[in-house]
Design goal:
This protein is α/β, with parallel strands linked by helices. It has 2 domains: 150 residues, Quinone Oxidoreductase, Chain A, domain 1 (Alpha-Beta Complex); 139 residues, NAD(P)-binding Rossmann-like Domain (Rossmann fold), CATH 3.40.50. It contains 9 helices and 15 strands. The strands form 3 sheets. Strands 3, 4, 5, 6, 7, 14 and 15 form a 7-stranded mixed beta sheet that branches. It has a 6-stranded parallel beta sheet with strand order 10-9-8-11-12-13, sandwiched between helices. α2 packs across α3.
């Protein structure tokens, strides 16, 4: 098999120059991990877009095959919990950052990073969901674990037209929550309304720095943006409100004060999908099959691209021109 070749996107740092290109690799070029997977699909997440375009300090090892998630079939493994022919999905574990990732037709990874694909989910559907959708599910879990129910009041989702936001809106709506959405673009309202958003809050105030406390509006929120947007979300939370924060599309800073926390009892919960323990991953994937309406997956997926088209799609994502998820068919 070492003589066979396949295609992969490879990022290289050549002096001060950055290069991303589809290359023809042999199996000998792959990492020496215990499980070989025939990759079928990957996705483009915000972190991927930063890595592929070289616009973010995402890559920790050179050269690197990017792609922080993928789904496919196990071909060979020495991991006792896996077997050849098994369908699996991978998200997190710094794949696509420190370790070679999913923008390739074959990949070798550690078996403990892989989650068996839940019954009722195809590899294509798994990557329609991807890391972003998986993170959206984790955010919903975080709100529920903190005691938020549909009767608690309206839930705000920021970045609601993006990958995390789209899935979060769809799941929350199915569970009976009243969902309000911030998209940053009125042209995206029809799409997000189709996922279940009942109200939109886009307005010029979201570009301004909020006061320490604003009028109370939300029982809970899922924030994918960070920075001034998260600061306003915190300032607008109801007493004992809960915010699940998982993104920094608007920046990693948080220009706020302790006021929401000590005067209104607001809870800010950080949600991470990278180093989540395997048992929690399995629970979340199994729940997605139940709580994410399957009929919405095609609507959430904006487009399907090939390996050679990943760069252009990543640029479009960073420019805010995409809705929902971008599927990567590595064999197209």
């Amino acid at each position: 098999m070492s003589e066979q070749t396949f295609n992969a996107v490879v990022l290289r740092e050549e002096g001060t120059k950055f290069r991303a290109a589809v290359e023809n690799l042999t199996f000998d070029a792959l990492p020496s991990n215990d499980t070989l997977v025939k990759v079928e699909y990957s996705t483009i997440n915000f972190k991927d877009a930063l890595a592929v375009t070289g616009k973010g300090k995402i890559v920790k090892t050179w050269p690197l095959v990017p792609g922080i998630d993928f789904a496919g079939e196990v071909l060979e493994t020495s991991n006792r919990s896996l077997k050849a022919g098994q369908k699996v999905v991978l998200t997190g574990w710094s794949v696509g950052e420190k370790h070679w990732g999913g923008y390739t037709q074959y990949q070798r990874v550690r078996g403990e990073w892989l989650v068996p694909l839940p019954d009722g989910l195809t590899t294509r559907q798994a990557m329609m969901i991807g890391t972003a959708g998986f993170t959206g599910m984790l955010c919903v879990n975080a709100l529920e674990d903190a005691g938020v129910t549909p009767r608690s009041g309206p839930v705000l989702v920021t970045g609601a037209a993006g990958g995390v936001g789209s899935v979060a809106v769809a799941i929350l709506n199915k569970l009976g929550y009243t969902v309000s959405a911030l998209t940053g673009d009125r042209e995206k309202h029809e799409y997000v309304a189709g996922l279940g958003a009942k109200e939109f809050v886009d307005g010029p105030q979201w570009a301004d720095l909020a006061r320490p406390l604003e009028a109370q509006k939300w029982a809970a929120a899922i924030d994918t943006v960070g920075s001034k947007v998260l600061a306003r979300v915190l300032a607008e939370m109801n007493y004992n409100g809960v915010v699940a924060a998982c993104g920094l599309a608007g920046g990693a800073d948080l220009p706020t004060s302790v006021m929401p926390f000590i005067l209104r009892g607001v809870k800010l919960l950080g949600v991470d999908s990278v180093m989540l323990p395997s048992n929690e991953r399995i629970k979340a994937w199994n729940r997605i099959v139940i709580d994410l309406p399957a009929n919405l997956l095609d609507g959430i997926t904006a487009q399907t691209v090939s390996l050679s088209e990943v760069g252009a799609a990543a640029e479009a994502m960073l420019a805010g021109k995409l809705l929902g998820r971008v599927l990567v068919d590595v064999n197209r």
